[in-house]
Amino acid sequence: MGRPPCCDKANVKRGPWTAEEDAKILAYVASHGIGNWTLVPQKAGLNRCGKSCRLRWTNYLRPDLKHDNFTPQEEECILELHKTIGSRWSLIAKQLPGRTDNDVKNYWNTKLKKKLVNMGIDPVTHKPFAQVFAEYGKISGLSIQNARNHIHLPNNTTDMESNQFPFSNGTPHDKFMNDQLQLNYSTWDSKETLQTHSFTQVPPSTSCNGTVYTYSSSFSSVHSHVHTMPSSSSTSTWNEFILGHPFTSSGAEQKQGIFLSNSFQKENPSCGEVEEKQPVEEASAMDSFVDTILARDKQMLMDFPPLLDVYLDY
DNA sequence: AAGCAGATCAACCGCCCACCC
DNA sequence: GGGGTGGGCGGTTGATCTGCT
């Protein structure tokens, strides 16, 4: 038995708000303030769901909202924060005065995601597609070339033209990656060095109120990295490691209280709580995670030999 | 000018969590 | 401690706008 609906959906108005309804919300908030939204429709004389009233207020009517286009500086903030904490739109929006989570989310989905894709960067991981594909092979225990064979990375156009796509779990991200693979295969070459990207800090003239981050791409070789990971003798648990990892969303969430209040905010008091610029090593963070998973997997197989007979396919 | 496709964004949905009793 | 509730959140939908043919 689920939770009862917050209102009688059959008898409340839905869809676009009229100026008259907006005026009622504004008048109500002006005299009563914000809070107890379930009572707002009744008290304000609106035939709307309370939740809908709250959304209308927070996303549109709030006097402190900006309704103009996103600035390049705001864009850089969003990119940097999304790279660090993922699609935590409300957290990102809090760093952008006058913007709502809905604004940021829409801007990301309609503009920034495409922009990254055009740059050859996977908007989910913020890593070059080539690197993501390479890691897919790595997770499967395959070399890049074998990965290409295993997941049908394109040696030539025929694979792609025959619609054999590697990401086949049916998740939205898989579908997206397949789409991007299709879009990018013609220029991709596994022998080519992999593309990495990083933020370059530009002297603080404008900014997300201070520091400008230029999202740039460059071609370079991919290096393996030595990573910290929980050893079998470590007192920390695997779960703690994952939770504590700054580039997993949960880890970022845990740490946001720390990094969001540190140096960046000092330098950028209003845009504020953005992580200090990370150097190129950041791009390897996901490598670290993947490598660690693989190492742990290996350890498990050693600990539990019967599992050696089981084919583990991620 | 009409029709269509893609882009945009306001609004909704449903889940989750913190808070209160 | 546990259940109920309000509010917050991320994902999704769909109406409208815009540009192209």
Largest pleated sheet: 2 strands, antiparallel
Rg: 24 Å
Unreliable segments of 5+ consecutive residues: 147-166, 183-290, 304-314
Strand arrangement within the widest β-sheet reads 1-2
The global form is: elongated
Number of strands: 4
Cα distance spanning the termini: 35 Å
The DSSP helix count reads: 14
Percent helix: 40-55%
Succession of helices and strands: HHHHHHEEHHHHEEHHHH
Calculate the mean pLDDT score and round it.
60
* Oligomer category: single chain
Quickly give the structural class: mainly alpha
- Beta-strand share of residues: 5-15%
Subcellular location: Nucleus
Keywords: DNA-binding, Nucleus, Repeat
Domain Myb-like: 9-61, 62-112
Domain HTH myb-type: 9-65, 66-116
Please describe what this structure looks like.
There is one protein chain. This protein is mainly alpha-helical and 314 residues long. It has helices at 19-32, 40-44, 50-61, 72-85, 89-94, 101-118, 129-139, 144-150, 157-161, 172-184, 238-244, 249-259, 263-267, 285-303, and strands spanning 121-122, 127-128, 195-202, 212-219. The strands form two sheets. A two-stranded antiparallel sheet has the order 1-2. It has a two-stranded antiparallel sheet with strand order 3-4. A hairpin with a 4-residue loop joins strand 1 (121-122) and strand 2. The longest helix has 19 residues, at 285-303. It starts with 18 loop residues before the first helix and ends in an 11-residue tail after the last helix. It binds a DNA duplex (21 and 21 nucleotides) through helix 3 and helix 6.
